[in-house]
What we know:
Low-confidence stretches: none
Order of helices and strands: HH
Distance between the termini: 37 Å
Structural class: mainly alpha
Helix content: 55-70%
Number of strands: 0
Amino acid sequence: MLWYGMVNHISGLDFLGITRERAPAPPAAAAAGLAAALAAAALALDAIRHAAR
């Protein structure tokens, strides 16, 4: 869904700032970074729990 927005230049779905209408807001970029960090932490925790079995 997000790639569709970027490829078709829909500024409301453009999270990378490819379209010229507007760039992504800094809070949105921070939220995306935080979400990626939390996802990586969850995957690491799952791997540690699986290895401890």
